[in-house]
Design a protein that fits this description.
Helix content: 25-40%
CATH superfamily of the largest domain: Dihydrodipicolinate Reductase, domain 2
Strand order of the largest sheet: 13-12-11-7-10-9-8-14
Strand content: 15-25%
Structural class: alpha/beta
CATH topology of the largest domain: Dihydrodipicolinate Reductase, domain 2
Radius of gyration: 21 Å
CATH architecture of the largest domain: 2-Layer Sandwich
Bound molecules: nicotinamide-adenine-dinucleotide
């Protein structure tokens, strides 16, 4: 990897896309001023770039090209509509920059592969935001699986029972389009929970799904999708993603093994049981356990309003990796597997057949 130009100081960041999540990144960066400096804010709508730069620092620009030729930039953060992620990230990589890309990396596996090739050529770091990987509930569950404390992990469920009003889809002309959103409930809203299911169950190899647009108008993509996934290990998973569940419930991950199980509901451990190595499980003819909110270990619970903290934790991992003190915990390859599951689900829903994932 090239020697960072900020070897003696803090890295300079450029933020591209000053919309809903771009403003959130601005807020995260303003709490990390000892670790980074925001030097440029770019948005094709000049007033958005100006407003965010005024609030969080940096110079406003309407194109990344202008920002790159006028400012010293080490890291480019991509917060544009999903279908523009590849173009922006590749421009940054060709200029030799490190990149943080909002989820999902791109709308197809092929476009994600183009970013992977540009990263390999640049030799710089690229992370994709998957902030829920950094929730204490997720960390505790994945650590238990890694330590064998769930035994043979045989099934899981990723469920997103959310509500998005018609006004949400009408709020941006890219929302709900195949070209720029890349999908609906499963791709935009569900990708986080699909990513956690993949992290827990391993490499997905086949998917079968149905999808429909049942409760919204003027959108091309699905507002309900259900599917089943087979994993390389033999484990089986269920997907349920909807933006049509009024008034909006939770994002939920269930993971089950023959020595332990976890239920994460809205980032909190609602249930957790693991059997440490060397301990026997209690032999039971049958078992049922009530799942109650707060049933997990308090230390593993995250703050419910902690969207910003989860992003901050992922920024810290990126900054530590940049300084050579940690490994990048979420890379393009990680996110590519979730994009493969989701685009495979769409192909299956279109063709009525199971789809094998390469
Ligand atoms: N991690 C999360 O929890 C989370 C939450 C929300 C959104 N997102 C992701 O963030 C991305 C943006 O979503 P959003 O809700 O902020 O959208 P948004 O429409 O609110 O903001 C996008 C901004 O990008 C600007 N833009 C468009 N094309 C551009 C370009 N080529 N160069 C510079 N600016 C450009 C638009 O003018 C707009 O201001 C999406 O990929 C979405 O999936 C992630």
């Amino acid at each position: 990897m090239s020697v960072p130009s900020f070897a003696l100081g803090v890295p300079s960041f450029a933020l591209v896309g000053a919309g809903v999540i771009g403003r959130h990144h601005g807020s995260v960066m303003s709490r990390l001023t000892d670790r980074l400096r925001l030097t440029a804010v770019i948005d094709v709508v000049a007033s958005r770039a100006e407003e965010l730069a005024e609030a969080r620092g940096g110079r406003p620009f309407t194109s990344l090209t202008d920002a790159l030729s006028n400012e010293q930039i080490d890291v480019v953060v991509v917060c544009t509509p999903t279908g523009h992620h590849g173009t922006v990230a590749i421009e940054a990589l060709e200029a030799g920059k490190h990149v943080i890309i909002e989820k999902p990396a791109e709308i197809t596996v092929e476009k994600t592969d183009e970013i992977i090739r540009a990263r390999d050529k640049a030799g710089t770091l690229v992370t994709v935001i998957s902030q829920h990987r950094f929730d204490p509930s997720t960390e505790k569950t994945l650590a238990a699986i890694g330590a064998g404390e769930f035994g043979r992990v045989s099934s899981g469920i990723a469920a997103i029972d959310w509500w998005r009003g018609q006004s949400y889809y009408d709020s941006g002309d890219w929302r709900g389009t195949w070209e720029l959103d890349g999908g609906g409930a499963l791709m935009n809203q569900g990708v986080h929970t699909v990513d956690l299911l993949v992290a827990a169950l391993g490499r997905p190899v086949e998917i079968f799904a149905y999808a429909g647009t049942l409760a919204h108008e003027r959108i091309e993509v699905e507002d309900v999708a259900v599917g089943v996934v087979r994993f390389e290990s033999g484990a089986l998973g269920v997907l349920h993603a909807t933006t049509s569940a009024y008034p909006g419930l939770s994002a939920r991950l269930q993971v089950h093994g023959d020595r332990g199980s976890a239920v994460i509901d809205n980032d909190q451990l609602a249930f957790f049981h693991a059997t440490p190595a060397g301990e026997d499980i209690e032999e039971r003819l049958m078992g049922t356990t009530r799942v109650t909110s707060g049933g997990g270990d308090e230390t593993a619970s995250s703050n419910p309003g902690a969207l910003s903290d989860a992003h901050r934790r992922q920024y810290l991992n990126f900054l530590d990796a940049l300084a050579g003190n940690d490994r990048l915990r979420v890379d393009l390859e990680t996110n590519r597997q979730s994009i493969a599951v989701i685009t495979g689900a769409y192909e299956s829903a279109r063709t009525g057949r199971p789809v094998r994932l390469g």
